[in-house]
Design a protein that fits this description.
The protein is α/β, with parallel strands linked by helices. The protein contains 9 helices and 9 strands. The mean pLDDT is about 95. The structure holds S-adenosylmethionine.
Length: about 240
């Protein structure tokens, strides 16, 4: 059992994590992307909308999903290695993200973005952030946090704190989407072990009852080739901050 501070996040092997999880588009991510895309397409955003993704790691698809709707997108990341990876990718993201973008372009609003690479580069910034501690000066209008709250600690209190602090980043009524590994026992990146708290749908529902309105929870079954050992599926939750 160990908390977030016990792990060396600065030495997170970004390349290995990307290769293992996002080099190819897996069925689970396609399902999540479809649901998040349709959820965001159902919102009305104004031209000054500011989006935030927490613990981005090497996953650009939450930011791509918010891209047509946001004037600014902030990627909040604790790990120095992942912040450097993000800074490089934002200059000109790699070809693997094109299959994720293709899923998004099944809806017209994404097709109307002529140059997604250019738009992501011009509208996105990376910030050093500790989701268990940092407090925002100005709140965001829409937010995502994918595989973070349960995958940065084995402590239930830190899972609760991460969810509360994520919702506190957003304005009341702001739409959000979050994903979770279900029953994860932790994961290996570049030969190093990183923590997870084994949570399920009931835990997400219980934690979010006080934080979100109109909460919808989707269970995503494991595809033919599980991404990581020791988990039983993925959970996607979306709703509006109270
Ligand atoms: C399992 S990875 C998820 C990465 C990515 N969001 C995804 O969908 O694959 C967990 C991420 O949380 C970041 N992280 C760890 N501790 C954090 C903290 N205290 N505050 C913010 N991010 C943190 C890690 O650096 C890593 O990028």
């Amino acid at each position: 059992m160990a908390g977030n501070a016990a792990y060396d996040w600065d030495s997170f092997d970004s390349g290995d994590y990307l290769e293992h999880n996002y080099a190819d588009l897996h069925d689970e991510d396609r399902k999540i992307l479809n649901i998040v895309r349709d959820f965001l397409c159902g919102q009305s955003f104004d031209t000054h909308t500011r989006g935030v993704d927490v613990g981005t790691g090497t996953n650009l698809y939450p930011a791509l999903a918010m891209l047509p709707f946001c004037q600014e997108i902030s990627l909040l990341e604790f790990s120095g290695a992942n912040r450097r990876w993000l800074a490089r990718q934002l200059r000109d993201y790699s070809a693997n993200w094109e299959s994720y973008w293709r899923v998004l372009t099944e809806r017209e609003v994404y097709r109307s973005v002529q140059q997604p690479r250019e738009r992501l580069r011009r509208h996105t910034t990376v910030l050093k952030w500790d989701i268990l501690d940092s407090v925002p000066e100005v709140k965001w209008d829409v937010g995502t946090m994918f595989f973070v709250a349960e995958s940065i600690t084995t402590f239930r209190e830190e899972f609760t704190t991460a969810l509360g602090k994520f919702c506190a980043l957003l304005k009341p009524g702001a739409p959000f989407a979050m994903t979770f590994m279900e029953n994860s026992k932790g994961y290996e990146v570049g030969g190093k072990l990183f923590p997870a708290l084994g949570i399920g749908v009931a835990d997400v529902r219980e934690e979010m009852a006080e934080l979100g309105n109109d909460l919808r929870i989707h269970h995503v079954n494991i595809g033919a080739q599980p991404l990581r050992d020791g988990y039983s599926g993925m959970i996607l939750a979306h709703g509006y901050v109270k």
